[in-house]
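Good morning,

Both structures are done.
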Amino acid sequence: MKKKILNVCFYVVVGILSLYIISFFVPKLTINLFTFRPYVVKSDSMEPKINVNDVVFIGKADIKKLKKEDIITFQVYLATGEQIVVTHYIYEIYELDGKTYIRTHSKNETSVDTWYNKDGNPEDVNIDSLIGKLLFTIPFSNPVIIPLILIILLIVLSIPSIVKSINQSFFKILEVERKKDYFKKIDERLEEYAKDDNANLCPKKENIFRCLELTPITKVKVVVIGLEPYDNLSSDGLAYSTTSKILPDVLLNIKKEIESDQKIILSESGDLSHLATQGVLLLNYSLTVQKDNPGSDLEIGWFNLVEVLIKEIDKSSRPIVFILWGNISKLIRPMLKNSKHMIITGGDPNNPTTTSFFGSKPFSKANKYLVYKKSKPIDWKF
């Protein structure tokens, strides 16, 4: 459907430009487009209402409904015998010898037009010479119009690549995965949470896929995998991130390593959205957890979706860094096959002293690799 809409937009814009060019250079060529005909104005007789180089679109006219000051287009002869197409106002409509005639005038209301028939005799517009009534005008005389149409054309031409990017997004993948059997168990679990208005669902329902919203697939530079959200209402949909002012130990440990590694001082905030918007995908192995019940949703099927997402990211030709901590590395690393990417493994930030997390410098290693691959490094300060 989107493709069809884009095609229509493209052909409309190209059609308007084509009509203008053809009508301008071949003014005597009659073009029938659906129920109307376009003409390029070549004289100033109707200015400022209609200006030179404007395109008028003329539709069929019912003589019974025409009235004074309507704008019509018709064919007449000049005194020289040349036949021309004219767009002017109606001055009056009258009957003569059983025939209907239209007397016309230009912008000067006090001056009535003088036209001729093919025999060279003065004659007002014969009803048989009427082409139609003005429907609308495209003001090509305005110097802004053609550049504007060209800009619109360029935008329309660029939309397919944007749509392609959207089609490759995480949400396109999610749309496909939702139809698979494993997702039924996830939906059943979410329905259980909904029975008590999601009071025990962590994170909030609207934040379950927040990490995918903030970090589109085409923007991913670094992937950090967590196990599951915090089992309290402070979880915000980003791995390790929290809305609470009292930060969990695992996040304090991560912040301590960032400060040591990057030689910076971080704020007291636990909001990691600044990293997500730079291209750090903060993805949990399980996207939900029951309040005060850690591990509750690890087996409902989220890992199937995570595996699909990771494999899709791994296909990217752009350099991407995967930071895998603790036991997560054993689950994720076998999914990664692309040699263009960097994999950083390290100790578990939940147990930093026993797993050699402190001093592993994953953040500077990630930035060093990104810079080496001519990609903008991450600003780890938040």
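Second structure follows.
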Amino acid sequence: MDNVTAQNILDYAAALELQTQSGPAADFSEIITAGKSINIATAGQITFLSSKYAATANDLLAQCNSNVIVLEETFKPLAKPEVFQTKHFIFSTEPKNTVSAILLHFFNKQVKHTIHPTAIISAKATIGSNVNIGPYSVVEDDVTIGDNTNIGNNVHIQHNCTIGNNVVIKSNTVLGNSGFGLTKNEAGEYAEFPHFGAVIIGDNVQIGSNVCIDRGSLNDTIIHKGVKVDNLVHIAHNVEIGENSLIIANTMIGGSTKIGANCWIAPSVSLRNNIVIGDNTVVGLGSVVTKSFEDEPEIAGVPARKLDEFKALLAQFKKMI
């Protein structure tokens, strides 16, 4: 949509059944071009203020130069029209989500669903509708790609991978390479164990740049629906990741490890092979997980342990310093 005005955004907020309030000197025809954080937003940009900033909400509002602000509903008493005469306020219980919805509605650039002429697509691959495949990407035999999937540049999808609908795979990622599975022969030499398994990616998965997801050896490597994988992540053979889990940058997941649903794996975590992480687990920054935690909501440390044990150990270290 060209020339999005403050009035357009207020109308959309009303369609979302959100309350709005405009100061007596607010300009309803002001053109809004982008969203920015509240500390740097200027006129012509939309911003938000959530409960996370309750301690500094007054100061942030007073210093904000944006005229369209999505405000945490509990901050409504701060939005006095006589003070903020030029501002439009949208009240929401989830300001960040509301701004996200507004930006996606008005400013999201639609992906052109094309297969770039430099992409190499096997005649034995099955490609769904409205699929985008970027320059120099390779799709090998017996690959299935679902509808509305967006594959970036220089992505290599090796044979026997299945990718669901509405998946995003960013540039320079490799799916379906043979895992690092070796056996030692009678001469004491290492030989590669054959990898005949697949990589299966569920619907609504996002995979970042420079990610490597290895195929299974005999079983499959499975990434269930809604999983989000950040940049620079390694997922080894036979790994299974449950629905809606988040795997953050620089994480390494060893072979045959299973991660439950709705987990948060923080940056630079290493998980050894053949362990189980239960549903709804948070694994702290830089942790090295050497054993299973099937029913523990928070773990952290090197090696990883229950969070209360980790905190107690830190307290002991502080006494020694």
